[in-house]
Amino acid sequence: MTSRGADLLVDTLASAGVRHLFSLSGNQILSVYDATVGRDITLIHTRHEAAAVHMADGWARMTEEPGVALVTAGPGHLNAVSALYTALMSESPVVLLSGHAPRAQAGRGAFQEIDQVGAARPVVKAAWLVESAERMGEEMARALALASAWPPGPVHLSLPGDLLEARVTAAPRSSPSTPRSRETDGVLLDQALDLLGEAKRPLIIAGPAMGRGRRWSEIERLSELTGIPALLMESPRGVNDPSLRGATRCVGEADVVLLLGKRLDFTLRFGAPPAFTARCRFIAVDVAPPRSSDRLALALAANPSVVVRQLVAAAGERVWQRSTWTKEVADARSTTPAAWDELRRSSATPLHPLRVCAAIQPRLEAGGILVSDGGEFGQWCQAGLEARHRLINGPAGSIGSAVPMALGAKLARPDLTVIATLGDGTFGFHALEFDTAVRHRIPIVAVVGNDARWNAEHQLQLQQYGASRAVGCELLPTRYDRVVEPLGGHGEHVEHAAELAPALERAVRAGRAACVDVIIDGVAAPTFTAGASH
């Protein structure tokens, strides 16, 4: 019995439980489309290749299963590459499949022939060109396994069109071996616990992947056993992450910090003062921790999710001294400035972002998913909203992912309300994915903070150059609800506080993708410093 390379690829995807391909069609991948006919795999057909990757990213973060994007060669592939950076920095298991010029025409100037593997390599864990139709399924299985292996992250496969079309004898497919996680030396574990136990103000800081699902549950268990506060850090603003609120000040007071899958990078100001005290020392746990640093007390080269389980077991055999430090950090994390209470209730126009948050919060408390983009409005929402399930743009600091990422999250959890918060500038990146949402009947609610400005850049210009030299940030006061309505979505426009809750109610109940366009005050994002917060 013979099959096409495309059939072997789709067989592997189906066997692995992949149920959605987030895709935009093109010449080189039509055979893959054909191979999905009659299979339990749905093509979610997007309006832009980057959106396909963001959707796969949203799916992957919600499920901890690989999200798979499928795009065509050349410009289609290049459109998708930028979105891989967001997935890479957020440690999201995504696989990008890109059609490729035929192998039979390699190096001869084939249609859309470029070095796709080279283009993808800086923003993925691994990238390669499939060289054999017979190995198409095996290579697909390898990519899925690699995307999920620690640290999770994106993987790219380029698929030559002639190999996808080629007829081959289907050979038995071997499953890729899963690397066994090494147990960390007990002596190193004891050293880590000794350092934490002797510290006066110890802290646990987790990286993006460690903040999801069962990994974060293990960290919470370790924190409960030891009394050591644990913080998730996945914002590009790092030690100034507004979602940490007053706990950002506590970071600068820690004397020993356990880094679990979190690099000592720009978000932590490389561990240097004033972000951390000069006496603070770090315990780094990751597959490739820093080799040496004057700030590094101990490095454990291991999978941090495995190490956490070992630390929990070992910590349970010790007696831990409790202090007021744990409550101090918890209180700082949950406490907001007194002025915020008034802003949440304010009826002033244009609306303050916190007034918008006050209307959204009940929806999240009822079991919703928050997807928050970057920018000033996004930062206010990350600071002002609490959600059990939260997806943000992540350490990449990119913008534009919120709408497609929300679609992926909704497909993963159709039982939950998904609310995406984004600025008006951000809306322009993937506005036409509302067409995708309507076609595929994916009901999300996007709340657009409309201040007619690229406000993040505007605020930086004000700080660095002054108001007289602020330039290139103004936008039209567009009615974004009216952009969505002709696409078949539901639109709401809000200018006054009393309109917020009813508009959100109608948007949620509409049963289709909805946009709530809210006129907001273009205020700077909140900051928390050692002296004050606003």
Give an overview in words.
The protein has 534 residues and is α/β, with parallel strands linked by helices. The protein has 3 domains: 2-169, Rossmann fold (3-Layer(aba) Sandwich), CATH 3.40.50.970; 186-334, TPP-binding domain (Rossmann fold, 3-Layer(aba) Sandwich); 338-519, 3-Layer(aba) Sandwich (Rossmann fold), CATH 3.40.50. 39% of the residues lie in helices and 17% in strands. The chain has helices spanning 5-15, 30-36, 49-63, 75-89, 116-120, 136-148, 161-165, 186-198, 213-226, 247-251, 304-315, 324-334, 338-345, 353-365, 375-384, 402-412, 424-427, 433-439, 455-464, 480-484, 497-509, and strands at residues 2-4, 20-23, 42-45, 67-71, 94-100, 126-129, 155-160, 167-169, 202-206, 230-232, 256-260, 281-286, 296-301, 369-372, 389-392, 418-423, 445-450, 490-494, 514-519. The strands form 4 sheets. The protein has a 6-stranded parallel β-sheet, with helices on both faces. α1 (5-15) packs across α2, α13 (338-345) crosses α14 and α14 (353-365) packs parallel to α21 (497-509). The longest helix has 15 residues, at 49-63. The chain is globular, with a radius of gyration of 24 Å. The protein starts with a strand and ends in a 15-residue tail after the last strand. The model is unreliable at 530-534 (pLDDT under 50).
